[in-house]
Amino acid sequence: MSDKIEKPDDAWRAQLSPLAYKVTRKHGTERAFTHDDFPKAPGLYRCVCCGAPLFDQATKFDSGTGWPSFYAPAEGAPVGEKQDNSWFMRRTEVHCARCDAHLGHVFPDGPAPTGLRYCINGVALEFQPQD
User: Fold this and answer.
1) Residues involved in catalysis
2) Collapsing DSSP states into helix, strand and coil, what is residue 47?
3) Which of 55, 62, 78, 126 could form a disulfide with 97 if both were Cys (CB 3.0 to 4.6 A apart)?
4) Is residue 39 within 8 Å of residue 127, measured between CB atoms?
């Protein structure tokens, strides 16, 4: 799934909820503990903007932060990273490399086996149960 998706801003705004638009297209953040909990069943979390498979339920864990957390992207997922120096902090932003949707940030305080915590805005994801 390497086809780059580009749309004009008004098309994204029409496709997404106001909060999903603010988070994914304008680099916003949903408030902690405000997104519904995701199912515990096997499945994939896909990009709300383009449907790209991003994270597997098997890598999800409860970080206690109030946002869905994963210790690794799904195999072959189009998850990109770049430095984010906003808010007087140095962080690593995580985005969908297929459509450039802002997803959240990755931190080096996660569990084994990677030691990483992909802290993702729940509104940026759609859950697809495994068939």
Assistant:
1) 119
2) strand
3) 78
4) yes
Write the secondary structure of 75-101 as one string of H (helix), E (strand) and C (coil): CCCCEEEEEECHHHCCEEEEEECCCCC
CB 58 within 8 A of CB 72: no
8 Å CB contact between 2 and 78: yes
Q: pLDDT class for 88, splitting at 50, 70, 90?
A: low
Rounded to whole angstroms, the Cα distance separating 71 from 74 reads: 10
* Nearest residue to 125 (alpha-carbon basis) of 87, 69, 84: 69
Hey, is 23 helix, strand or coil? helix
pTM: 0.91
Q: What does the pLDDT look like over 89-116, one tens digit per residue?
A: 677 999 999 999 999 999 999 999 999 9
SS3 category, 122: helix
